[in-house]
Amino acid sequence: MFLVGLTGGIASGKSTVSKYLVELGCSVVDADLVAREVMLPGETAFRRTVETFGREVVDGNGEINREALGEIIFRDAEARKKLNKITHPQIIKKMLLKILMSFLKGDRFVVLDVPLLVESKIWVRFVRHLVVVNCSPGAQLERLMKRNDYTEEEARIRITSQTPLSEKCKLATRIINNDGSIENTRCQVREFVEDLKKSWSFNFYEVCGLSFVCCIMLKIVFSKKYLV
What we know:
By secondary structure, the chain is of the alpha/beta class. Helices cover 57% and strands 12% of the residues. The protein has 2 domains: 2-27 and 107-222, P-loop containing nucleotide triphosphate hydrolases (Rossmann fold), CATH 3.40.50.300; 39-96, no CATH class.
């Protein structure tokens, strides 16, 4: 089994591509979804987040108010570091478990849908293919303003806070252009999946890397540090 990294920028269409991959039967580990799962009431990350940031980040249903928490960490770098320290170990543990389950099921490859894949020091070294969902700066700005009801200034601030798509594309082994029609994007995704299914070569370093990931996962799962 090998790993495929999927990334992009805010409002570039990564989530849409990820959805198409699932529809085509691919095993996808969605980091954003995992991040939501570890923040559910009763989870370790939920408890520690409330202890750190207070009850004001909890909504009327007793769940994390993502907008309220987002406002805090977006404007405060130290608060963002605190949150990352709370959530990242839990997210990594859960993602590794999902990868191992796919391995045991016999999946040929697993797609890691990670917004900050390029910036990550954990996942990017283990992926065979790095897929970037790209779009023009104008389309990205317009989509973000429409989707989140942002002003142009608010949208630009969030876009510029990320690594530019142009820089991510330089590192990509595959670029999916999401400037065109929905069907055009679907066609690119289908072609990429067909190419992945034809890939049967094994890379010694990938095998070693996956074995290393599994060993780290087992260590994390059974470590008392992350079981509290």
